């Protein structure tokens, strides 16, 4: 075949084109048939899908209704459970709150109970003390009434005269002296007479001082004006009586100063003053209120105004001085007793030393005897055993020598000289 012919080439081209077109047409038909089949299948599937979708919608509606119903039931149940739980929680919170409140209030309750018990105890004690206080007040009133009665009796007795006041003042003075520790037999002398250039005088008390010396106490102060002031109903009369009382105390002080007891007892070592005893602090205070310079004037006149309080302190110092002097005397006695005891112990030590020497000599003699017995007698006596002499099973025991010597008195000093007492060395710092 000649492929160089153009018509032949075109014919071939058209033939090939026709064949290709036929093939394409066949292929297009096939594709169209396949597409149609696929379209039908898709339609079927779409119909099935729509059916399924409808069924699903129906089922969904049914399920929704069921879910709604179930949800409603569940919501009710849940609501009931929530309400129940809320109630339980509320009850738990209430119980917890009650427990917490009870725990917080328990100490308060216990404290209140203790406080109530203490209040009851205090009330009981207060009631008892009130009863006791009432009894004490009643007893105090009775004692006050009795004291007032006794005071009235004493006032009435003191108004009878100077003799009663003097005896009362003397007894008060004696009580103060004895309360201070002074003894009437040794430490002070009462109611004695003294001769002077102006005549015989009679001091109330003479107190002996430690180490020698005396001082005089006078207790003759008049109290008539003071007693009158206590009975006065008018203030003017009372003040006038108090002024007379102060003047009476001053006059007695001046009279006592003029007697110069310190000169009469100068030989006994009297200090240059005399004590004027006022038997009550109130008596002297009343006088000093009206005459403030009375105390200084009395000192200038060598008169010491004393009351039971101040005289007690003064006599207490005197009693202390007596005790100190007695202790000094006892210390001197102790020294003498110690010296005598030391002397006797020294003599006894000498006797002990002599006895030790005698014992040492006796031990030496005994040891010499034992040595002689062993060397001279027992050796000869044992020859009887060699000669078979019947000695009835008895053996001769050898006496033992005494090796221990007599303990020397190392604390005893050397032998005293002739005519001297032996001495002891009681220690490194003891006297010899």
UniProtKB/TrEMBL annotation:
Keyword Amino-acid biosynthesis in annotation: no
Single Gene Ontology BP annotation: DNA recombination
Positions of the UniProt region annotated as Disordered: 413-432
Keywords: Coiled coil, DNA recombination
InterPro entries: DNA_recombination_RmuC
Coiled-coil ranges (or none): 32-89
UniProt biased composition (Polar residues): 420-432
PANTHER family to which the protein is assigned, alphabetical: DNA RECOMBINATION PROTEIN RMUC (PTHR30563:SF0)
Biological role: Involved in DNA recombination.
Family: Belongs to the RmuC family.
Name of the protein described by the UniProt record: DNA recombination protein RmuC homolog
Organism: Caulobacter segnis (strain ATCC 21756 / DSM 7131 / JCM 7823 / NBRC 15250 / LMG 17158 / TK0059)
């Amino acid at each position: 075949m000649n492929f160089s012919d153009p018509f032949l080439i075109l014919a071939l081209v058209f033939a090939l084109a026709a064949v290709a077109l036929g093939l394409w047409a066949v292929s297009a038909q096939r594709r169209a048939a396949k597409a149609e089949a696929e379209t039908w299948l898709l339609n079927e599937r779409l119909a099935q899908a729509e059916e399924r979708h409808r069924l699903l919608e129906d089922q969904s509606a049914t399920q929704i209704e069921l879910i709604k119903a179930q949800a409603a039931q569940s919501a009710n149940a849940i609501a009931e459970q929530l309400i129940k739980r809320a109630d339980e929680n509320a009850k738990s919170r209430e119980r917890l709150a009650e427990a917490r409140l009870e725990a917080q209030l328990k100490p308060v309750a216990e404290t209140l109970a203790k406080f109530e018990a203490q209040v009851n105890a205090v009330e009981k004690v207060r009631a008892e003390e009130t009863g006791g206080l009432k009894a004490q007040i009643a007893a105090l009133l009775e004692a006050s009434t009795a004291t007032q009665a006794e005071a009235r009796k004493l006032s009435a007795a003191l108004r009878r005269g100077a003799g009663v006041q003097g005896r009362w003042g003397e007894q008060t003075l004696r009580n103060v002296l004895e309360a201070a520790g002074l003894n009437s037999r040794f430490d002070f002398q009462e109611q004695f007479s003294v001769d002077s250039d102006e005549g015989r005088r009679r001091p109330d008390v003479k107190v002996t001082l430690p180490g020698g010396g005396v001082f005089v106490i006078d207790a003759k102060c008049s109290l008539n004006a003071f007693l009158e002031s206590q009975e006065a109903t008018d203030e003017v009369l009372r003040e006038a009586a108090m002024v007379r009382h102060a003047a009476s105390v001053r006059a007695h002080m001046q009279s006592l100063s003029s007697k110069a007891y310190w000169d009469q007892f100068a030989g006994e070592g009297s200090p240059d003053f005399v004590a004027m005893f006022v038997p009550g602090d109130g008596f002297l205070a009343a006088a000093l209120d009206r005459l403030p310079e009375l105390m200084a004037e009395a000192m200038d006149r060598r008169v010491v105004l004393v009351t039971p309080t101040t005289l007690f302190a003064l006599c207490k110092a005197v009693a202390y001085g007596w005790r100190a002097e007695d202790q000094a005397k006892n210390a001197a006695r102790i020294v003498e007793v110690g010296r005598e005891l030391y002397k006797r112990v020294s003599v006894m030590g000498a006797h002990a030393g002599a006895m030790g020497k005698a014992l040492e000599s006796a031990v030496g003699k005994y040891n010499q005897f034992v040595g002689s017995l062993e060397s001279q007698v027992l050796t000869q006596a044992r020859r009887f055993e060699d000669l078979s002499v019947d000695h009835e099973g008895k053996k001769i025991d050898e006496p033992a020598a005494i090796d221990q010597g007599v303990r020397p008195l190392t604390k005893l000093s050397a032998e005293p000289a002739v005519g001297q007492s032996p001495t002891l060395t009681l220690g490194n710092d003891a006297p010899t």
